[in-house]
Amino acid sequence: MNNFFIVDPNTATNPEQLNAANFLAEDLTMKQDNSKPQILIYHSHSQEDFTDTVPGDVSTTVVGVGDYLAQILQDQYGYSVIHVTDAFDIVNGELDRNQAYDFARAKVEQVLQENPSIEVVIDLHRDGVPEDRHLVTEINGKPTAQIMCYNGLSYTVNNGPVDYLPNPYVQDNLAFSFQLEYQAEQYYPDLYRGIYLAGLRYNLHLRPKAILLEAGAQTNSVVEVKNAMEPFADILNRVLTGEG
């Protein structure tokens, strides 16, 4: 709990659910070859930006970070990647995130139905932090934004199991996040901020190997966050190949 997981006050967990030995024993290696799509990247909050985002330039937003991650995974590691760049948080031309996860789910379900070979689903975000907080470290000589996995337990303290948001893959999702952070702890110990456990689902039910990744925050530069995609791609590859 003190090393890997951060629990939101609105949810709760227990030692049985957070069993490190079980997490590490789960086989999360990639089953498909790259002749068909393997990894899907999308953004429930496509309008998230950074300190030096240029208005109107998508490449300087979280979508541009997703482009860079897709490029690394394809060019450096040989995965077949689909990157969905739709804006799920723009309604009638205005920023509106009330239904962003619902809109994103509908699109992602369509892509997964059309591409059943996809095993990994990444909802790429950036966090929101106080303006005086800068989530940055140095990796390979580069200023690098720190990252965090955000997991949903479909359980709240007030209401117990959130039955209208079922997720049969909660334990798989947790194992995936844990194995990623376990690799980061060994190779890039300053990269990860932890795994945040919240009460809802966040579309993580769509695949066992689904994550919501918070890369940096609004106080980071675009370059710092893009730099974080390089070590993240490395630890993801280590988990998917079992070579970590």
Shape: globular
Portion in beta strands: 15-25%
Query: How many whole angstroms does the radius of gyration measure?
Result: 17 Å
The biggest beta sheet reads: 7 strands, mixed
Oligomer: single chain
Please give the order of strands in the largest beta sheet: 1-12-9-13-6-2-3
What is the number of strand segments?
13
Order of helices and strands: EHEHEEEHEEEEEEHEEH
| Contiguous runs where pLDDT drops below 50 for at least 5 residues | none
Report the mean per-residue pLDDT as an integer.
96
The termini sit apart by: 22 Å
The computed structural class is alpha/beta
Helix tally? 5
Helical amount: 25-40%
What does this structure look like?
The protein is of the alpha/beta class. It is built from 5 helices and 13 strands. The protein has helices at residues 20-25, 62-75, 100-114, 170-187, 222-241, and strands at residues 5-7, 39-42, 81-83, 90-91, 94-95, 120-127, 136-139, 142-145, 147-152, 155-156, 160-161, 192-198, 209-217. The strands form 4 sheets. Strands 1-12-9-13-6-2-3 form a 7-stranded mixed sheet, with helices on one face. Strands 4-5 form a two-stranded antiparallel ribbon. Helix 2 (62-75) runs parallel beside helix 5 (222-241) and helix 4 (170-187) packs across helix 5 (222-241). The longest helix has 20 residues, at 222-241. The relative contact order is 0.22. The mean pLDDT is 96.
State the main characteristics:
244 residues, alpha/beta, seven-stranded mixed β-sheet, globular
In short:
This protein has 244 residues and is α/β, with parallel strands linked by helices. It contains five helices and 13 strands.
